[in-house]
Amino acid sequence: MKRVLGPLLLGTALSAAPAMADDLKIGILFGFTGPIESLTPPMADGAELAMKEASDSGLLLGGATVTPVRGDSTCTDASAATAAAERLVTVDHIVALIGADCSGVATAVLNNVAVPNNLLMISPSATSPALATDGDKGLFFRTAPSDARQGELLAKVLIDLGINTVAVTYTNNDYGKGFADAFGAAYKAAGGTVTLVAPHDDGKADYSAEVSALSVAGGDALVVLGYSDQGGNGIIRGSLDSGAFDRFAVGDGMHSEKLMADFGPDLNIFGTVPWTEGDGTAKFAAVAEAAGKAGDGSFVRESYDAAALIILAMQKAGDPAKAHEHVMDVANAPGEKIYPGELAKALQILKDGGDVDYVGGSDVEMIATGESAGSYREFENKGGSFETVRMLTAE
Amino acid sequence: MSRTPLLFAAMAAVLLAVGLLQSWQLALTILNLCLISAVMALGVNVQWGVAGMFNVGTMGSAAVGGLAVVLISTPPVRAAWAAGGGGLLAAGAVLLATAALAFLLWRRMGERSLWRGPAVGAVVLLGLALSQRWFLPATAAIEAVDAASAGYLGGLGLPVVLAWAIGGLLAAAVAWPIGRLTAGLRSDYLAVATFGISEIILAVLRNEEWLARGVKNVTGLPRPVPFEADLQAAGWVQRLAASLDWPLRDTASVLVKLAYSAWFLAVLLIIWWALERLARAPWGRMMRAVRDNEEAARAMGKDVARRHLQAFVLGSAIVGIGGAMLVTLDGQFTAGSYQPLRFTFLIWVMVIIGGSGNHKGAILGAFLIWFVWVQAETAGLWLAQAGAAALAPDNPVRLALEEGPAQLRYVVMGLILVLVMRFSPRGLIPETTPESSR
Amino acid sequence: MTDLLNGLVHLASMLIIPGLAYGSQLALGALGVTLIFGVLRFSNFAHAEGLSLATAITILFTIWLQGRGVSLGVLPTALLGAVLTVPLMALVFIGTDRALYRHFRRIDARPEVFMIVSAGVMLMTNGVIRLVIGPDGRDFEDGERFIVTARGFRDWSGLAEPLVLKTSQMLTIGLAVVATVALFLFLNRTQAGRSMRAYADNRNLALLSGVDPDRIVRLTWIIVAVLSVLAGVLFGLDKGYRPFVYQQLLLPMFAAAVVGGLGSPLGAIVGSMIVAFSELALTFAWKKALAYVLPATLAPEGMVQALSTEYKFAVSFLILVIVLLVRPAGLFGKVAR
Q: Which residue of chain B has the CA closest to A175?
C-alpha cells in the first residue's frame, strides 16, 4: 500500500528535482518588505551580478548556469521567512542560499530549513555578535564580520584621536545592541568615559528626545551605531540642527556618502567600516558600474562576495551539495587572489585543479567560526567624500 | 448547512495541491502556521465574535505567550542569578509591598476622601523609586554576565509544551489588569487603549534585557519534536524512506513537520472543543445576549463589565497559547519581530473573513488568510512574470510588480478585508447560535 | 544672570521649540482624527497612511515644480506642491467614502465595523504609497533651512548655549495656528460649519432640520484633506520624508485626540500639546537646566531624567490610561463611556 500511495502522493515533489544540473538555482532571501526594504534591492542586484558573471563564463561545473530566485525574508517575521526559505528549497530546489539578511530571521532559517536540508547558507549582512551559530553543522557563513570586532576597533580609533568622553546611541536591534556593548566595553577598558548610552528605534517619527538627552550627557563626540537611511540619519540631523554635537563617530551601518549630501560637505564624521584596501572595492565599483547598478550601498559588496563564494565553492567541490565543505578553501589562502570581475579566471583555475584565495569586494578572509575576519578602515569625511585614514586589523 | 464541510474540504484541497504541485515540506510549513493562526484567531473570536469587544492589542498577548517559552523552557543562567538574582528579588519584594500598601490605602480611605488619589499616587511613586535602588544594579549585573550569549536570567529548564499552558496563563495574568482598566470603555477608546498597551508591552520586552535578552533575541529554544538529523540516523525512518522510495532527508523533514502539526492540531482541537462547550453553556448564551444588546442585558441585571472582562482574559490567554506555540515552532524569541500589522491586524482579518462569532469560521479564516499571506509572494511572482508581460516595459505597475511582488500582500489583505465587510459582512461561515439552529 | 539666560536658551532650544513643533504636527493630525470621529463617528485607522500619501503626492508635485524652475525663494517649494495636492487628496478621500464608508453609514453599522474597514483602507493605502513613491526616504526641503542657527546665535549672543529655529519649525507652528483659527472660524461663523456641528451633535435632529448629509460628509473630507496635507508635509519637511514613519504617528495622534476628548477640536489641540510636551519633558534630562539655575553645590550628579528615552512613546499611553481612568470622556469630551 505504501509503495503505491507514496509515489502517487509524494512523487511529484521528487520528479521536479534536477538530475544533473545545467541550471543551478541560488536563493536570495532578503527583506524586500519590512524595515530594511530600501537596502535590499541593491544587495540582491549585487549578488545577481556574481551569478551572471559565472553563468556567462560557461566554466562552472561543465557549463552550468546560475539563476537567482528571490524570496522575501521580511527581516523580522521568522515564520514568513521560514516559509519563504522552505519554498526556495523544496519548490525551486535551490542549491545554496544567500541570506537571510537580518540576524533574527537568519537564525530561524538556519535552524528550521538549512540544517534539516543540508543547505549551504551565506549571509552578507547578519553581523550580530549574538547570532549563535553553534549547531550549524558547518553550513552557515557570513561575509560580513561580527560587530564585536568592529566595536573594539572603533574604540581604538577614538582613543587614538584623543577623544576620551563620548555619548553613544545605537539602533535598537541585535546589530546595534551588540555593537554598542562591544564598543562600550572596549572603550572603557582603554580609559574612555561613556556619558550615556541611549538606544534609538528605527522608523520612528522624531528623535529630539534622544538628541536632547545625549546632548545633556555631553561628550567630545557622538557615537552613532545605526543606519544611515534610518534612525541614525534622524539622530545626526537632530544633533546638527540643535547644535548638540558636531562631531560624529560611526560604524559600518552609517558609512554612506549620502550623509554629506544631506548635511553638507563639511560634516565632521569619521568611523570604521569593513574594508579592503584599494583593489577589491575599486574593482567591484567598476563591475557594478559596467552593469549599471549601484555599487556603494551597505552590504552590496558583501552580497556579491556571498554569491561568488558559493559559486567558487561549488566549483571546487565539483558537486553543489558538498559546496559547504569548501567555502573555507576558496575564501582563504593559499591560492591566486581573486577580485570582483575575475570569477571566470577563478573558475578556470579551480577547474584545472588549482587553488584560489577569494578576496572580492569586501576582502573576504574567513575565520574558524565561519565569519569574515574583516579588515577595516578608519575613514573620515574630506570635503564630501570618505577618505581612508588608515587600515586597521583586529588582533 | 452543508457549506461548512465544503469550505473546509476546499481548503484541504488547496493545501494538498501545494503539496502535490510545489512540495510537501512547504504545504506542511504552511499548515503548521495555519494551525497556530487558527488558535490565535479563536482567541480574537472569543473577544470580538462572542463578546463584541474591539481589542487591538493581540500582538501584546502573543508576545507575552512567546516570553513564557523563554521563561519556562530555556536552561537557567546560574551566574546571572548569582550576580543579580537577589537584588531583583529584593526589588520585586519592594514592588509587591508597594502594591499591597497602595491597595490597602485605596480600600481604607473613603470614596469621598480628597486625599485618596494623591496618597496612593505618592505611595506608588515612592515604592517605584525605592525599588530602583536594587533593580538598577541587579539588572546591570545580570546583563553583564556573558553579554553576547547570555546576559539574562534564563528560564526554568522545563519541557517546552508546559510553556504553552504557562504562556496562556501569563497572557491571562497580563490581560486581567488591562481588562479591568478598559473593559467598560466604549469601543473606540478600547481600541486605542489596547493598541497602545500592546506597544508598551513590546517596548518592555525589547528594552528589559535581563528578562529575555531584549533585542539580542533568544535562539535555539528546545523543541517538542526530534531533530531532523536524529531522525535521518534512526533505523525506522530509513526503512520508511526506503519503502516510500523517497529521499531520506525529505522524509525526516516531513516527519518533523508532521509531528509539529500533530501537537498544534491537538491544542487547536482541545481549545475549539472547550469553546464550543462554552458557547452552548449558559455562559455562552449570556455572552451573546450581552453582545447583541448591552442595554437589555444590563437591565436584566447582568454584570456586563464582568462578562467583558472574562471574555477579554479568556481570549488573551488563547492568543498567548498561540504565541507560545509560534515561538516554539520558530525556535527563537525575537522581540523585534512583533509588528501590529502581522500580529494584530492579520489575525483580525482572519476572524472577520471566516465569520465573526463562529469558531469554525475563525479557524477557516485563519487557514485561508495565512495561506494567502504566504502564497501572495508566489502569486505576485507569477503575476509579475505572466500578467505584467502584457503591460508596457516602463509601466509603473509592472515595475512595481517586478520590484517587489511580496509587497502586494498588504494591498491584497486590505482589499479582501474591505470586500468582505462590504459584501459579506458575516463572513464565509456565518454565525449560527444554538438558539437559532433549533 | 548669564547662567539663567543660558538655562532658558537651553530649555527653549531643546524642549520648547521642538515640543511646539511636534505638538503642532500632532495637532493637525489629531484634528483630522477628531473631525472624522465627531462627524462620521469612527476612529480612522487609515489616517496616518493618508498623511503619508498626501506627502508622497506633494513630493511628486514639488519635483515637477522644481523641474520647471518654480521656487518660493527662502520658503520650501513643497508649500506650492501642497496646494496642488489638496484637491487630489480630497478626491481620494471622498472617493473612498463613496465606495465604502457611505454604505456602512446607510446600514447604520456599528462603530467597530467602520474601524475594521478603515484598517482595510490603511492596508491598501500602504500598498498604494509603495506604488506611488516606493519605500525609500526623500529629502524634499529646499529654500533656507534655518531662521536662527546654532553658531549664528552663539556668535550674536555670546552665550554658551545655542538657540536653533528651523524654517520648518516656524512654518509648522505658524501654519498650525492659521489652520486652527480658520477651522474654528469655519465651524462657528459659517452656515456650513454650523450645520456640520449640528450634524455631529445630533444626526437625526440635523437631518430633520434639512441638513444635506452628503454635503456635510463631503465638506468633512475636504477639511480632513487640507489638514492631512498640511500635517504630512510639515512633518516631512521637519523630519525628512520616509513613507512608513507616518504609521508611528497614528498612536500619538489617537492618544492626543482621546486625551482631549474624541470629537472635540479644542481637545485635539490641547491633547496634542500635552502628549508632545510630556513625551519630551518626562524623558528630558534636566541635569543641564538645573545646573544653570541651582548653585554649584546643589548641581545634580545624574541625568535627572524621569524616564529613559526608550520608553518615550509609552508616555502618551500612560497619559491616555490615566485620562481614561479619571475622566473617560477626555478633557473636553461630552460623552462618557
A: B216
Q: Which one of C111, C112, C117 has the shortest CB-CB distance to B418?
A: C117
| Mutation target among A212, A227, A246, A268 for the C interface, most CBs of C within 10 A | A212
Beta carbons of C233 and C55 less than 8 angstroms apart: yes
Q: Specify the amino acid at residue C103.
A: H
Partner B contacted by C121 (CB < 8 A):
yes
Distance CA C81, CA C85 (A): 6
A150-275+379-393 maps to which CATH number? Answer: 3.40.50.2300
Residue B334 pLDDT > 50, yes or no?
yes
pLDDT grade for A11, boundaries at 50, 70 and 90 = very low
Residues of C whose CB is below 8 A from B408:
127
- Specify whether the CB–CB gap between A203 and A230 falls below 8 A: yes
Check: CB of residue B253 under 8 Å from CB of residue B25.
yes
* Of the residues B128, B153, B178, the one at which a domain ends: B153
CATH number, residue B391: 1.10.3470
- Residues B158 and B248 occupy one common structural domain: yes
- What residues of C are in contact with residue A262 (Cβ under 8 Å)? 139, 240
User: Is the per-residue pLDDT at B438 higher than 60?
Assistant: no
**Which residues does chain A have within 8 Å of residue B22's beta carbon, measured at their own beta carbons?**
13, 87, 90-91
Asked if residue B19 lies in contact with residue A72, where contact means CB atoms within 8 angstroms, the answer is: no
Q: Does B252 contact chain A (CB < 8 Å)?
A: yes
Instruction: Judge if B251 and B274 occupy the same domain.
Output: yes
At CA A243, angle to CA A240 and CA A248, rounded to 5?
50
ipTM of the complex: 0.84
Comparison of pLDDT for A256 and B418, the residue scoring more: B418
Average pLDDT of chain C is: 86
Tell me if chain C has a CB within 8 Å of the CB of A294.
no
C126 to B414: CB separation less than 8 angstroms, yes or no: yes
Q: How near does any CA of chain B get to the CA of C126, in Å?
A: 7
Interchain pair B406, A89: CB under 8 A: no
Q: Which residue has the higher pLDDT, A159 or C73?
A: A159
B280 and B194 in a single domain? The answer is: yes
Residue A37 pLDDT exceeds 80: no
Whether residues B51 and B107 share a domain: the answer is no
Task: Say if A213 is an interface residue toward chain C (CB within 8 Å).
Answer: yes
pLDDT band at B307 (very low <50, low <70, confident <90, very high): confident
Q: What is the CATH number of domain A16-144+299-358?
A: 3.40.50.2300
Cβ of B337 within 8 Å of Cβ of A77? The answer is yes
Instruction: Give the start-to-end residue ranges of the domains of chain C.
Output: 2-326
Integer CA distances (angstroms), B43 to B161, B164, B191, B356, in order: 19, 14, 16, 12
Mean pLDDT of A45-63: 89
DSSP 3-state of C138: strand
Same domain, B158 and B106: no
Closest by CA to B347, choosing from B207, B144, B198, is B198
Spatial CA neighbour of A100 closest among A2, A79, A172: A79
Chains touching chain C at 3 or more Cβ pairs under 8 angstroms? Answer: A, B
- B251 and B141 in a common domain: no
- Is B235 exposed, middle or buried (CB count within 10 Å of its CB: 0-12, 13-18, 19+)? exposed
Domain co-membership, B167 together with B130: no
CB contact under 8 A, B189 and C311: no
Residue B392: pLDDT band by 50, 70, 90 thresholds?
A: low
Q: Which domain holds residue B322?
A: 3-76+154-437
Query: In CATH, what class is C2-326?
Result: mainly alpha
**Domain shared by B307 and B405, yes or no:** yes
Number of structural domains (chain B) is 2
Nearest residue, CB atoms, C287 vs list A37, A216, A229: A216
Domain ranges of chain A: 16-144+299-358, 150-275+379-393
Which of B121, B153, B185 is a domain's end point?
B153
